[in-house]
Amino acid sequence: MEYRKLGQSDLNVSAICLGTMTFGDQNTEAEGHAQLDYALSQGINFIDTAEMYPVPPKAETYTRTESIIGTWLKRQPRDKIILASKVAGGNRKLDWIRGGPVAVDRENVRAAIEGSLKRLQTDYLDLYQIHWPERNVPIFGQYQFDPAKETKAWVSIQDQLETLAELVKEGKVRYVGVSNEQPWGVMEFLRISEQYGLPRIASIQNSYSLLNRGFEFGMTEIVYREQVSLLPYSPLAFGHLTGKYIEDPQAKGRVTLFPGYAQRYTKPNVIPASAAYAGLARKHGLSPAELALSFVYHRWFVTSTIIGATSLDQLQENIGAWSKPLSQDILQEIEAIHLRYMIPAP
C-alpha cells in the first residue's frame, strides 16, 4: 500500500480509505468489524465516517455507523488509525439530527463533535469535515447554481472556521476538511484561514468517478496549487460502474434498495456510459469495477480514494484493483468514451 501526505498536514494516509456508510443498515456490526479488520490487514490506515451515517439518512439509523466503528476502535492502537468524520451541514431538511435545525454554527458543531467522539470511543479525530456547504450550492445530483434559492442566512465561513479552531485548540480535532464543496467555497476557506490565522483545510471530499469527472473542471488546479488533498467518494458510482445494473436493472444495491435516493444516477447517459466502460474493461481482461477503481486510484490529483462494500468479497476485489494500474492504451480508450459521454452523472 502506498501512503501519501494529506494536504499540508503531517498525516500520511493510505492511498485507499475505507468508507463505512453501509454500517448499521446494509451491514451489521459484525460485518463492519470484519471489513475494518481486513482493510487494516491490507495496509489501509484511513477510515472515513460521518455522524449522519448510515445512508440513506434516516432518523432510526442516524449515528449507528460511528457506534459500530467505536466498538472496533477501542480494541485498536489509536495512533495507528487515521480517523475522519463529518458534521452534517445546514440548508437541508434533516431536523432529526441533533434535534434540528441543523447548521454549521458553534452550538451545532460542538454538539456534533461531542456526540461523534463518544460514539467512536476516542478523544480526538484526525480529520473533521463539513459534510456539505452551509450555503446554497448545487449538490447531490443538482448541477446548476440557482440564486433564487438564496432564501436563508447562512453561517459564514469565518464563523465556521472559528468554531473548528476551538476544537483544534482543545485537541479534539487535528485537521479540518470540507466535502461536496465548490471552487468558490474552497478558495474562501483558504483565504479566510490565511487572513485570520484559522485552521487551513487539508482536504476536500467530493464525488469523482468515470461517470462524474466534474472535479477536473477547475478544481484540479486549485488542489494542485493550494496543496489540498482530494478524497474522492463513489468511485463506482453507486454500483453502476460494476456493470450489474446493465445486466439486471433490478440488481440488489443502493439504487434498487432505496428508490429515489440516487438522483445523480438517473440521468439519460448513465446506462450507456456504464455499458461502454464495462465493455472496455472486459476487452482488456478486467472486471468493470477494477477498471473504474484503478482509474480513480491512479489519477495524479487523488490522494486517497474512499471505497465501500457490503461484502468482504467486494472489498477484496476493490482493494485488489490498486495493483492493476491501467495502460496508456486503456487510458486513451477511456478518454474516447469520456468525450462521448462527458459527465453523465454530475
UniProtKB/TrEMBL annotation:
<protein>
    <recommendedName>
        <fullName>Protein tas</fullName>
    </recommendedName>
</protein>
<dbReference type="InterPro" id="IPR036812">
    <property type="entry name" value="NAD(P)_OxRdtase_dom_sf"/>
</dbReference>
<dbReference type="InterPro" id="IPR023210">
    <property type="entry name" value="NADP_OxRdtase_dom"/>
</dbReference>
<comment type="similarity">
    <text>Belongs to the aldo/keto reductase family. Aldo/keto reductase 2 subfamily.</text>
</comment>
<keyword id="KW-0560">Oxidoreductase</keyword>
<dbReference type="Pfam" id="PF00248">
    <property type="entry name" value="Aldo_ket_red"/>
</dbReference>
<feature type="domain" description="NADP-dependent oxidoreductase">
    <location>
        <begin position="15"/>
        <end position="337"/>
    </location>
</feature>
<keyword id="KW-0521">NADP</keyword>
<dbReference type="GO" id="GO:0016491">
    <property type="term" value="F:oxidoreductase activity"/>
</dbReference>
<dbReference type="InterPro" id="IPR050523">
    <property type="entry name" value="AKR_Detox_Biosynth"/>
</dbReference>
